[in-house]
Design brief:
The chain is of the alpha/beta class. The protein has 18 helices and 16 strands. Strand 11, helix 9 and strand 12 form a beta-alpha-beta unit.
Length: about 550
């Protein structure tokens, strides 16, 4: 992305987790480069690409620039790419010691003195870089040279920023997720989140923002992912944005489902009636709400400075699930200060009973700069020293329980959040475990038993194909849980056909072709529209190799 009129002297670069992600931050920087825009180019790679190839491409990009001129590469550094970006910066400095490396992004905005990548870089901009990065580039190119290595980013009113959306290419629009934001910041103070450091949330000019959304829509954009931390903070603004997309559905009205998908992160206890009325107008498959519950434990909420009305949260979730067609992606975090295994299990069971489309299970991470670190000593919080700095144990949760939870959450993604096993999951969780130690039925305990069983037999949490899972679930439910083969096959068959899969699990042989002719479902489950479920696995499982092993005690 460069005007092509002059040789580039500045490269804006980041390594995305996957190709489907398009960096909004880089495009903000590019949009605000002003007179340096003609000398700036934007380059995105994925973390899967070899650093030697990335380094060669970056240096070739700058090769037309005079060797006497200053060459600058600005890297966006995040928790998911810091290790590979560190290796890349080291290689670039060896290949071209004169290259000026500038870092920015949340991972290098705090605790820079301890970071290898910051030591190798020429400059680090902490916080906002939209205005500060162009200023630094001018100083490096034309002088006077800056004296400070670590430069606090200037946080300006949003009205002073040029919006970046015209710099999404046609290729981006056709094949990638478009991240957009109608506001920045967050007024809440949840200590595990970097947004807790914000003073408040700032809105972009709504008219200007919607004008840009209209232009994206006219260019063919149909998948919008809002990164606002609190989309429903200002109800009037939220309604206007939702009505903008409602108008698009009216324009596209036909006998076919609307080709539009919009994702928002919403506050779970703030859904006034006016907003509900608007949400209820959307048909199925258009809206997705990410709803961070994190914990239902009130003591834990207080400990991490999280304000959440649990009664309103449950009531609003019930309303969204039963009165709207929005897809609900709900979040829980394991390992929060003071939260025990049993406390988390109660919260999971409470959320599961509400029946949201997805329950995303996350493990607490100590992001650099977040206030969660104040509990490290008092609550014995032990974190991995390497990214993503996941919690390893606490005063309430053992290292064994953390390891078990990680496996549990991965299997939950494969079986529940994938949308491939809806009927089978209900069969699995419909009754308590034999000889359960719990006085009350617990879906968390029930799925935990399956997780332990799967790990013993497969010793892997990835590379499990849908067919392998079908066969394994059949064996588990019939041999370990005493369900009849007929009822398990019925549930698995219903799920497998609905998933759109086209292979042949062992336990469904002889049943699948006949049913497909009559009942095949053409559309994949709605959850498969999300990028984390667009994975293909191809390892088969021979049922003859599955052998019973002694039971072991699970947390």
């Amino acid at each position: 992305m460069n005007s092509g009129l002059t040789p580039p002297a500045i490269v804006l670069c980041t390594l995305n987790a996957r190709y489907i992600h398009a960096s909004l931050g880089l495009r903000y920087l590019f949009a605000n480069m002003q007179e340096l825009k003609s000398r700036t180019i934007l380059k995105e790679y994925t973390t899967a690409k070899a650093i030697q190839d990335i380094a060669q491409d970056l240096l070739e990009t700058l090769s037309e620039t005079s060797t006497e001129g200053v060459q600058i590469i600005g890297f966006g550094v995040y928790i998911w790419n810091v290790e590979i970006t560190t290796a890349l910066v080291s290689l670039l400095k060896k290949l071209n010691p004169l290259l000026k490396i500038v870092l920015g992004g949340p991972e290098v905005s705090f605790e820079t003195e301890d970071q290898e990548i910051a030591k190798m870089a020429d400059h680090v901009i902490t916080g906002w870089g939209d205005i500060s990065f162009p200023i630094l580039c001018r100083a490096l190119l034309y002088g006077p040279r800056p004296l400070m290595k670590v430069i606090p980013g200037e946080q300006v009113p949003l009205k002073h920023l040029l919006l970046p959306y015209e710099y999404f290419t046609d290729e981006d629009i056709a094949h990638r997720i478009l991240y957009v934001e109608s506001s920045r910041g967050c007024p809440f103070k949840c200590e595990f989140c970097l947004s807790s450091l914000d003073k408040t949330a700032q809105p972009f000019d709504l008219e200007a923002f919607l004008f840009e959304m209209q232009k994206l829509y006219e260019r063919g954009a149909r998948h919008f992912k809002f990164v606002d931390r609190t989309f429903n903070l200002k109800i009037d603004v939220s309604i206007q944005i939702l009505e903008f997309f409602l108008d698009k559905l009216t324009m596209d009205a036909s006998n076919q489902p609307a080709n539009l998908f919009v994702h928002f992160e919403v506050i779970p206890d703030h859904l006034p009636d006016r907003l509900k009325e608007t949400i209820a107008k959307f048909p199925k498959g258009i809206l997705q709400f990410e709803i961070g519950i994190q914990s239902f434990n009130e003591e834990v909420q207080k400990r991490i400075s999280r304000k959440q009305d649990n009664v309103k949260t449950v009531n609003n979730l019930n309303w969204l699930i039963n009165q709207t067609k929005a897809h609900l992606h709900t979040d829980l975090i394991f390992g929060l200060p003071g939260e025990s295994w049993d406390s988390f299990a109660l919260g999971f069971d409470k959320l599961y009973a509400l029946d949201p489309d997805e329950i995303q299970l996350g493990l607490l991470k100590r992001l650099r700069g977040t206030p969660i670190s104040r509990h490290t000593i008092s609550l014995e919080m032990v974190y991995d020293k390497r990214p993503p700095y996941a919690v390893q144990s606490t005063s309430e949760v053992s290292a064994q329980e953390v390891i078990f939870f990680v496996r549990f959450s991965r299997y939950w993604d494969l079986i529940s959040n994938s949308g491939r096993f809806r009927s089978t999951l209900k069969t699995l969780l419909m009754m308590p475990l034999p000889k359960s130690s719990s006085s009350n039925f617990s879906p968390f305990e029930s799925f935990g038993h399956l997780s332990g069983w799967l790990w013993i037999r497969t010793e892997k949490t990835s590379g499990l194909s849908p067919e392998e899972l079908v066969d394994a679930l059949f064996f588990y439910l019939t041999q370990e849980r005493s369900f009849t083969p007929e009822e398990v096959r019925k549930a698995l068959l219903m799920d497998y056909v609905a998933s759109g899969a086209r292979s042949m699990p062992e336990v469904l042989k002889g049943l699948l072709p006949k049913l497909r002719k009559r009942d095949a479902v053409k559309e994949l489950p709605n959850t498969q529209r999300q990028d984390r479920h667009q994975r293909n696995h191809g390892i088969s499982l021979d049922l003859n190799t599955i052998k019973k092993v002694p039971k072991q005690d699970w947390p």
